[in-house]
């Protein structure tokens, strides 16, 4: 399992490294991740017996990143308008169903999937399109994923103290601390291609490292509710796409809003 995980990790790193160099290729790769992530999310939720609008959610969730890739924005915050329209369409689609039991849960869960997977992850595209976006995108990915790596290897080898056993039985306090240390180190090694001070980078390492772990725990909470171990099995040794992007789902939008504020 460890060998499979390492090989999959190396392949993913290679794909992502090549993809982020060209902005539109980066956008399309992110869109692909979103499509698979949405499918995994809805497949997990369906195991709870909910009658979701899965393919509608996947379709709507795909348009959000594509609108960013092709710069199709009717308004400044086009994706927010799109989400409102998605809610209206969901209500209209529900009118055609004769069974109205669970309407609120079905509609809200479908919309949550679009927000949680598609909208949050599509902020990576926005980061790539910022001035100096290549370095900024590399920074947020390094901080988030090296934190994941540090938490996994340290937690699995010397972790003894459960972090939140009612959410994830494998996560430990030692792993969480190691993840933060790795996130800070990732921020510091990014200094050569960014103009941030070391103090600023340490702050970003801690802040984004905490958000990344929160994102990881959030998906663990969803999986615990759905009673599944992994979101999927498309990535050998790692599980599903959603298992790999969960920590980025919180760091990407917060980092984008933070950087947009300081760039003004």
* Percent range of helical residues: over 70%
Counting structural domains, the number is 1
Widest sheet, order of strands? 1-2
Mean pLDDT: 88
Q: Please provide the ordered H/E string of secondary-structure elements.
A: HHHHHHHEEHHHH
Q: What is the overall silhouette?
A: globular
Give the percentage of residues in beta strands.
under 5%
- The termini sit apart by 46 Å
Q: What does the largest sheet look like? A: 2 strands, antiparallel
Jot down its keywords.
264 residues, mainly alpha, two-stranded antiparallel ribbon, globular
Task: Provide a short characterization of the protein structure.
The chain is mainly α and 264 residues long. Helix 9 runs antiparallel to helix 11.
Describe the structure.
The chain has 264 residues and is mostly helical. The chain has one domain. It is 74% helix and 3% strand. It has eleven helices and two strands. It has helices at residues 2-21, 23-46, 54-69, 78-95, 103-121, 123-128, 133-158, 173-189, 198-226, 241-245, 248-263, and strands at residues 162-164, 168-172. A two-stranded antiparallel sheet has the order 1-2. Helix 1 crosses helix 2 (23-46), helix 3 runs antiparallel to helix 4 and helix 7 runs antiparallel to helix 8 (173-189). The longest helix is centred in the last third of the chain and has 29 residues, at 198-226. The relative contact order is 0.13.
